[in-house]
């Protein structure tokens, strides 16, 4: 029978991937960089496979990708076990470091029993409600959250690879080994400046203010009108190369695809500023759009139209009390900040 894989070696694999390098992993684990290398080499010898490509940053090989989710589960559960009995697992050549850091005299210092939760979240959620959810979580003082910014449509790969244990997603179907719970609906409003609307013959005749009732869910039908014709040529603002939100909205509205000039603006806050600056029209979450609509700096591109995008919380299905409590809190908090799914 082969010997069990040492926990501190699995923990080191997780730290190198999360931190993006051997030296950064050494700082996280409170050991030397050569000790990190020794642990990884020992783990690779034990499994008989190369687990990391020695690139910058290090990239897991196929065997490393298969081992990483299991390693992360074990490290998280070990950290919870240490926290449960008040152990400080940081430092030295022992098995601690990833989940539990050093504590103060009263056991409540910045690293006391701290458990790490790597999560994926899209920019719009990160810049509106998700940080507030983290800050108000029941274990906030004992949980270190490592966020990976990812489009809500592309979090499945992060969950499958074991890079994260929870993610905000648009997919209702759970990823293999995960559970999926509805969070709510984000309503996106197609907006531009009044000057932009006049220049491209959009919805400026209706003046500033919010859209009228009506619209569609993501994927729902739209009907073209005289107010939409200008969209075929009007410059638009996309978030990044893979952002299909605006293009999909246009296809629904016009009934065909078009390729107007596009600006790519990464970052949710910068995206809103780009639309407010008149670079183009864009779909903006209603929470971020509210100040611009109130001031009249933004108006609806097509009055009465919107796009509803349902969000779901997907998390690894493992017996972690910390992840269970955090997930329950995220779902409850989202219910207060997002529209209900059946709205």
Reconstruct the topology from this structure.
Elements: H1 7-19, H2 22-29, H3 33-47, E1 52-53, E2 59-60, H4 62-84, E3 115-121, H5 123-135, E4 143-149, H6 156-161, E5 166-169, E6 178-192, H7 194-200, E7 216-217, E8 236-238, H8 245-254, E9 262-264, H9 268-276, E10 282-285, H10 286-295, E11 299-300, E12 307-316, H11 321-337
Parallel strand pairs: 3-4, 3-5, 7-12, 8-9
Antiparallel strand pairs: 1-2, 5-12, 6-10, 6-11, 6-12
What report would you give on this structure?
The chain is of the alpha/beta class. The chain contains eleven helices and twelve strands. Strands 3, 4, 5, 6, 7, 10, 11 and 12 form an eight-stranded mixed sheet that branches. Strands 1-2 form a two-stranded antiparallel ribbon. Helix 1 (7-19) packs across helix 4 and helix 2 (22-29) packs across helix 3. The longest helix is centred in the first third of the chain and has 23 residues, at 62-84. Residues 89-112, 204-214 and 216-224 have low confidence and may be disordered.
Structural class: alpha/beta
Report the strand count: 12
Distance between the termini: 57 Å
Q: How many DSSP helices? A: 11
Could you give a short account of the major beta sheet?
8 strands, mixed
- Global Rg: 24 Å
* Form type: elongated
Jot down its keywords.
two-stranded antiparallel ribbon, eight-stranded mixed sheet, 11 helices, 343 residues, 12 strands, 18% strand, alpha/beta, single chain
């Amino acid at each position: 029978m082969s010997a069990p894989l040492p926990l501190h070696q699995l923990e080191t694999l997780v730290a190198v991937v999360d931190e993006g390098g051997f030296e950064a992993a050494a700082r996280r684990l409170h050991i030397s960089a050569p000790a990190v290398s020794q642990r990884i080499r020992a783990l690779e010898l034990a499994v008989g496979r190369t687990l990391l490509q020695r690139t910058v940053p290090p990239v897991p090989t196929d065997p490393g990708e298969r081992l990483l989710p299991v390693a992360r589960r074990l490290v998280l559960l070990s950290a919870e076990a240490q926290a449960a009995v008040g152990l400080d697992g940081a430092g030295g050549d022992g098995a601690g470091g990833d989940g539990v850091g050093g504590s103060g005299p009263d056991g409540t210092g910045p690293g006391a029993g701290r458990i790490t939760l790597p999560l994926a979240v899209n920019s719009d959620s990160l810049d509106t409600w998700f940080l507030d959810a983290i800050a108000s979580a029941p274990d906030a003082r004992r949980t270190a959250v490592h966020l990976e910014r990812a489009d809500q449509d592309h979090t499945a790969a992060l969950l499958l690879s074991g890079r994260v244990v929870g993610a905000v997603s648009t997919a209702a179907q759970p990823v293999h080994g995960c559970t999926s719970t509805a969070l709510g609906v984000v309503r996106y409003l197609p907006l531009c400046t009044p000057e932009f609307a006049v220049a491209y013959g959009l919805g400026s005749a209706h003046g500033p203010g919010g859209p009228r009732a009506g619209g569609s869910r993501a994927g729902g039908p739209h009907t073209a009108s005289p107010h939409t014709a200008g969209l075929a040529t009007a410059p638009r603002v996309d978030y990044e190369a893979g952002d299909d939100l605006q293009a999909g909205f246009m296809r629904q509205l016009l009934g065909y695809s078009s390729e107007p000039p596009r600006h790519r603006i990464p970052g949710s806050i910068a995206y809103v500023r780009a639309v407010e600056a008149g670079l183009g029209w864009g779909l903006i979450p209603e929470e971020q759009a509210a100040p611009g609509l109130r001031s009249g700096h933004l108006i609806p591109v097509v009055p009465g139209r919107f796009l509803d995008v349902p969000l779901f919380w997907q998390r690894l299905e493992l017996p972690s009390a910390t992840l269970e409590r955090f997930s329950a809190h995220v779902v409850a908090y989202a219910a207060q900040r997002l529209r209900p799914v059946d709205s």
